Amino acid sequence: MALPILYSFRRCPYAMRARMSIVRSEFQVELREVVLRDRPEHMMEISPKGTVPVLLLADGTVIEESLEIMQHVLDWTLSEEEQHWISLNDDEFKFHLDRYKYPNRYEDVDEVEQRTAASAYLMDLDERLASEPAISEALSDALFPFVRQFANHDREWFDAQPWNHVLAWLTGNLESEAFKVCMKKHKQWFEGDQVVWFPRHD
Ligand SMILES: N[C@@H](CCC(=O)N[C@@H](CS)C(=O)NCC(=O)O)C(=O)O
Q1: Share of the chain above pLDDT 90, in %
Q2: Confidence tier at 28 by pLDDT (50, 70, 90)
Q3: 31 touches 184 (CB < 8 A)
Q4: In the chain, where the domains are located
Q5: From the CA of 73, how far away is ligand 1's center (Å)?
Q6: CB 119 near ligand 1, within 6 Å
Q7: 43 CB contacts (<8 Å, ≥6 apart)?
Q8: Domain 5-75+181-198: CATH superfamily, name plus number
Q9: pLDDT tens readout for residues 42-82
């Protein structure tokens, strides 16, 4: 039977969260590594909006939103609280993250103001991570790839901030075996290439 196909880009935080959900589950896909300026024709045919990740199921269903991929793979129904954090992350935090990382791509953007605005979310997240019950693994996987991006922009500054729970949570995720599997490097996919299984099956 045909395997589900995942069009993915290693460094994309949306693709990362989708791959994390696959690593956590029994799901197995054919992974097709995409270079965004050279998107495969087949990917554009099944998902003309042109963003990664895209999951094509064996029955022909196309799932082209990272969160919907996670929900499908994990059979995950978001609680109200999970929905709340994901909206904060995907809308507000991502908005400021992009402007903090690439201020020149936008008009009238001050990098430090953007960093401060993004930091409000991280301080809230820090408080949430300090309280019980812990956030679910699925929610954690949906969020940390974005925090990773923010942290990597100026790691020294990030590490000096008073968000110890965020720091410990991020470190735990980045050092995890699951994340190592998720971040394994793959060559750009071309039609006719040998199938790359993900996670790898030996
Ligand atoms: N809402 C989408 C967003 C996905 C997205 O924006 N991915 C970026 C890469 S990180 C992308 O494909 N951008 C297309 C481009 O840059 O042309 C999702 O959650 O899957």
Answers
A1: 97
A2: very high
A3: no
A4: 5-75+181-198, 80-179
A5: 19
A6: no
A7: 7, 32, 34, 50, 52, 54
A8: Glutaredoxin (3.40.30.10)
A9: 999 999 999 999 999 999 999 999 999 999 999 999 999 99
